[in-house]
Amino acid sequence: MTRYIFLFFVLLWTGVVNGEEIPAGFKATDANLFGHVVDKKTGEHLPYFTVFLKGTTIGSVTEASGHYYLKNLPEGSFLLVAKSVGYKTVERQVTLKRGVTQEVNFEVEEDLVALDEVVVSANRSETTRRMAPTLVKVLDDKLFELKGASCLAEGLSFQPGVRVENSCQNCGSSQVRINGLDGPYTQLLIDSRPVFSALSGVYGLEQIPANMIERVEVMRGGGSALFGASAIAGTINVITKEPQRNMAQISHHIMNVGGSSSWDNVTALNGSLVTENRKAGMYIFAQGRHRSGYDHDGDGFTELPKINSKMVGFRAYLKTGVYTRLTAEYHTVHEYRRGGDSLSQPPHTALIAEQLDHDINTGSVKFDYFSPNEKHRLSVFSSLQSIDRESYYGTGRNLNAYGNTDNLTAVAGAQYVGRFDRVLFMPSDLTAGVEYSYDDIHDVIKGYKRDFSQTTRVMGAFLQNEWKDERWGFLLGGRLDKHNLLDAPVFSPRVNLRFNPSVDLNFRASYSAGFRAPQAFDEDMHVSMVGEGKLASIRNMEGLKKEKSHSFSVSADWFGALGEVRLNLLAEGFYTKLNDVFALRDLGIEDGLLIRERYNGSGAKVMGVNLEGRAMYRRWLELQAGATIQRSRYDEPEVWSEDETVSGERKLFRTPNVYGYFTASVTPVKRFSAYLSGTYTGKMLVQHIAGVIERDEAVTVRDFFDMEVKLAYDFQLYKEVGLQLSAGVKNVFGAYQTDLDRGPNRDSGYVYGPSLPRSFQAGVKLTF
Q1: 31-108, superfamily in CATH?
Q2: Cα 141 from Cα 121, distance rounded (Å)
Q3: Which of 307, 295, 311 is nearest to 337 (CA)?
Q4: Whole-prediction pTM
Q5: What does the pLDDT look like over 471-482, one tens digit per residue?
Q6: 511-550 pLDDT, tens per residue?
Q7: CATH code of domain 118-767
Q8: 185: part of which helix (H) or strand (E)?
Q9: 3-state secondary structure of 488
Q10: Domain boundaries in the chain?
């Protein structure tokens, strides 16, 4: 399967780079545009600014001198747009005539608060953040670069309502929590497609390298009406990088973990190729990583696993016409990780070993059509992911714990967006589409006679209409999903209301429904070790019902200024009601495996407030901070331990009542930058399973503050050749868990707080 996926994309790109003929729709009219883009305040020419004809595939990027040139353009009237991150978008009306060359220049103003930032996750089509029907937070590649992040997991926490945590000492798996709900309640998308399978979800946050990310859009609250099952707590949409200009970049990052002999080395390569006529382009990204295992407490068992990973991929486009475009993306990941003891020996010789060897191939193809009047857009898309995983989950030098898992996930569909001048009482955008998803998983552990297979098929159709103008927005929509593991179709509605009394003030209110189907989830394939070295496997009870949710939110988003200081203040209240919540109970030992059954427990309620503030002074100082205050409770005490003397808990585990973050970026001179960030995690309730301790216990753990600092300096070596040197410290104050279990009978899930001890890092990056 892998070789065919790769061959398809190679052939596609071969056609792209070798296609010398002008595609249909690109006729030699000799109608040309040229000009420059300058900063309105300073008069400085701005390089790498995107300039394009709105409603077409035609566009370019300003050169290092700030100039652009578009040639052989179609005749007619168009809007010429100039846009870039950090600046307000500017539009100019132009009339193009055969044989006429025109000069059109742009003066642009800074937009430090990103009022005109474009998002797609709010309604499955491009819209500005200010006009979006629901709140969407955008994390761009600048944040990942400033932080020195190597993967997606390292940048997600810097927004209110979102936490990333390490959930296993042995394998180092991580999960993201949104608005108090754990990982399986969040839908992870790649380029707006739910191709990220349940199997890849356990380790996926670390398997998406930062250097392939253009931006990450996070939408808090239910999103099943847009993206289907599992979008209950929120949706994370990873947008991969697109080619804009010819460039190359290579970097190396090294980090010493905890002052020990453990080192983390990451080498990344990025390159962008664009044809002279800009009708085709390819962005190439690659990353290699090696991290040795880290043992914090000296008991011979790792707190952080050994990781060896390699990733390579690309995203390419071909403009097949003035109003049509073909886009393709492909990346392959090979990752080996090993935790426990005796890392240099075969896993069956260790007292504890969790070893995973992943081969992951992911690809997508999308075809877009834009109508000449800009009012209609049709997209046809397909995505595919294949995973081959060899595993070992074992204790006590067990020869029977080797396993293998195969997973194939496919998504295909079509989407239409129509913009109408008036429907009933206001202008409106209509979005409609169909989507089919297929997931087949086969998990085998022969030594334990485990042979699990499951195929899920979901056919979904969605329809929504958004009435909107500059002041008001009202969205009504829903999605109907037929899941093969459910008897009846599931309808997920959404209603959104937006009111903008002024350009700088936005009010929103929303309701959305969500659901999770009774299928195999991440933790089912992630066989964990608990207490006394027992291996656990999870199965669903007969007649398990879907888990349902109802989410409500209200928010106020204000943009303003105090002199030269730009401000953005956000307040959001949220409430989520869960019905038929999935819970676990022990059934006993079968063939050496501890069998846990998933059943429908009582309901739960999560409510709280998200607060965020941003302050920017010119372009050299940016401050941002956010906090979440929440309450998470089951309707009835949930039994979580088989020990009858251990009482049930109403409070959701691993959900602090208070948590937050801050970031500070300072650029006092053009080439020097300093970055400071921190996350705070309040007290929370954590399960501690018997093994090292005598009986199961629900522990209220202490709060943590994790701070990081990084300094960087840019050198101009020659014209457009630049060199950056950086250095920094992670977890400056060394806030690390002090009550870790020790020895082979430890509870690997009893881990909380910062994932890294105090660690020192340095990096070098060459760009040309």
Answers
A1: Carboxypeptidase-like, regulatory domain (2.60.40.1120)
A2: 17
A3: 307
A4: 0.87
A5: 999 999 999 999
A6: 999 888 887 655 555 555 444 445 667 778 888 888 899 9
A7: 2.40.170.20
A8: none
A9: coil
A10: 31-108, 118-767
